[in-house]
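Hi there,

I know you've been waiting on this one. I reran it after we fixed the sequence typo, so this is the corrected version. Both the input and the resulting structure follow.
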Amino acid sequence: MKRIAVLTSGGDAPGMNAAIRAVVRKGHYEGMEVYGINYGYAGLVAGDIRKLTRRDVGDKISRGGTFLYSARYPEFATEEGQLKGIEQLKKFGIEGLVVIGGDGSYMGAAALTRHGYPTVALPGTIDNDIPGTDFCIGFDTAINTVLDSVDKIRDTATSHVRTFIIEVMGRNAGDIALWTGVAGGAEQIVIPDIDFNMEEIANTIQKGRERGKKHSIIILAEGVMNGNEFAEELSKFGDYQARVTVLGHVQRGGSPTARDRVLSSVFGARAVDLLKVGRGGLCVGIVDNKIVENDIIETLNTKKHMPDVSLYKLNQEISY
């Protein structure tokens, strides 16, 4: 291939810019022309496409978000929308596409694959809920952002002998809660993937107080319920001076960590290598610390992301 394009879709994630940069720089290194598509699949259908030079990605590796922007575009789920997108790609003479995003973005890439258009998908979401990879672009930065907040909240929780419920993002996945719960020394982690008993949580908090513990930190994944609902349910078992902190979209922003920058760069370069030899219909990931690529349709149909529930058990053993 001599002309490829890259787009970002869905929620932004720190490291997306680093991945775009890698696609552009690696593409130019291989003698390709690289085009950027603004606003994801919406921009693809609208033909909002521009040629990218090495200079366009200068100083982008340290920036969070995505300079190609992103947008929701449910119309791309229809065949009509998909064919309009392919029409624009052909209009610009683009022979292959790199898509960076979450599960919705992957579904769009899989749809293009079914139409015979060479597409490579890279996992970009702080939720870390994409099948076929252990880690996604943006996850490491997000959990470090959350961890910084948890450390600060513990200071005030101890000062006032209170229970703090910290609601974190992740949609229906518990990865952010699991990793920050263990790293932040939380007394409780509540995730959608594992059933919980509110009375048992209350009893654990009470036993800690009886031992002289000055605070309790509960990390709550948003896919379970919101923080205020959780606090209300907890209050039925006693007054634990519960306070709720919803971290929200701060988790998506910020300069990517070194790990996210490296992972994004490796993913982006691998995507170009694949398209260079005409290979599409693939998704790139990292499994057991090795970069892998798998058939995107098979991955979406047969694999499901599962959080490392051993971390949940570990936290129960060491947070008591």
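Quick highlight: The chain has two domains: 3-138+256-302, 142-253.

Best,
R. S.
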